[in-house]
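#onboarding

Welcome to the new folks! Below is a worked example of what a typical request in this channel looks like: someone posts a single protein sequence, and someone else replies with the predicted structure as tokens. Don't worry about understanding the tokens yet, we'll cover that in week two.

Example request:
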Amino acid sequence: MPNTDGQAHRSQLQRIAHRVMLERGLTPDFTAAALAELEAIHGPAVANSAPVRDLRNLQWCSIDNDDSRDLDQLSVADAMAGGSVKLMVAIAEVGALVRQGSAIDDHARTNTTSVYTAGGIFPMLPEKLSTDLTSLGFDSDRIAIVIEMVFAGDGSLQRSDIYEATVKNRAKLAYDGVAAWLDGAGPMPKAIGAVAGLDENLRIQHRTAQRLRALRHRRGALSLQTVQARPVFDGDVLRDLKADESNVAKNLIEELMVASNGVTARYLEAKQFPAVRRVVRTPARWDRIVALAAERGTTLPGKPDGVALEQFLVAAMKADPAYFPDLSLCVIKLLGRGEYVVEFPGGDTPGHFGLAVKDYAHSTAPNRRFPDLLIQRLLKAALAGSKPPYGNDELVALARHCTEQEDAAKKVERQVVKSAAALLLAPRIGEKFDATVTGANDRGTWVRIYHPPVEGKLGKGFEGRQVGDRLRVQLVHTDVERGYIDFVRAG
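Example response:
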């Protein structure tokens, strides 16, 4: 394996990530001006002169990855009469410490997102902020934007409100531990048992999220299951890439975020404010999705139909669960990319085809995504009765820029994962693997192997291959620096 001279894999991957970010138009390092501003920030945001509710007594908790410290949201539930449930999501107050137009804001605006690579994290905001002063960390009093929602027993939204409040994270929880407990496959995490009543509160959140999810999927939300590769290190030595799979705890948080983002979008619309929305348009390559389904014995309508596609996906998942992540990836690529667009008062922007929602504005991760920080500033202006802090032309330019930079960040993340995979696969040149075609265009054909779960380019034997085809491939070349993994068709 490369690096037998003792050079750490982690540092090599970090160096590669740094270089690739620069190549993709992203800025990996904070400027001297941003760091000087950071030195002048000495504490978390405090309440302003406006009335701020004190909700620190509630059973707030965070659920995120095991190692996450940039905690953007907390949640809590309250069962109400008649089967209704009040759900509250607290969003980290970031704008109070990251001033619009500041050097720190300029860095965030340039990259528009934190970049999570196999070589390390390149945060959108300095870690002093994102993992401490603007993070909803355990047992810390913090100002937050609270999105309050009341749902009926069938999952329909009855009413909602948005306001500022003081909150305190009572339990820092991790997806895998919470999921195992909710599924009955593992013990209750100690942090849950340490807070009286939190176990039942989380079960209420889980049941409500399941109703929300069922309702969305009846409306045509898509059951998609992709494989995200996470590096496994032994010290600084890369040992493996493992699939980071979905679970019920991740689904719980996803549903709360989707609901919160919808409330945010509609709140700004009601206030006659413009907003940057996240959309996935009606797929232009629907014909290829129809063909993909036909190859598996399913007839889809000639025009895009989310409900019919969801029925196909559910059946496909039951029929072949091992292959379903690859089918999902094929469908995602054929659906087309997500993008940010501006919704002006009285406008009619597209919705999010994959989520089956019409009103959707990213607002729940202001430490990690610039569109969310932008939305937070718009929300705070709307709450205060002030004018929007951005002009219309500026918002349009920012929406386009955020789309471009998010695409660039994803390419960086994918390339560094492939560099990590190239490290692992270098000793296996000549081996054969089962694979699925995940991309086919004029630039070439790409396939995904199953372990490590990574894509590579198919050289010889790609003629006539279509997205979704399964075949046997042979590894012929790796390039760690460029993240190249090359296969030819075996046999």
